[in-house]
Amino acid sequence: MNRSELVAALSDRAEVTRKDADAVLAALAEVTGEVVAKGDEKDTIPGFLTFERTHRAAREGRNPATGMAMAIPAGYGVKVSVGSKLREAAKSGAVTG
Asked: Can you tell me the distance from the alpha carbon of 66 to that of 79, in angstroms, rounded to the nearest whole number?
């Protein structure tokens, strides 16, 4: 499902205009990005997803083209955890509300 299909499905399900559904989806992405960027708390959609910023330590890797060792600096990543409702939907093939 691409973004326009998701917006159409949200619009139909919530009985709002596609413009409003798109605005809500954009706001959700913006708020989640801000919370992850701060890094001091998790952003949770109860039962579905949890987003949190994680720290990655500096490490040594290999250049895949040359095979030479290279230093990879410390940085940050994002951990996304699946909630119970989404996990159950994936197992059963049915969405629970």
From this structure: 30
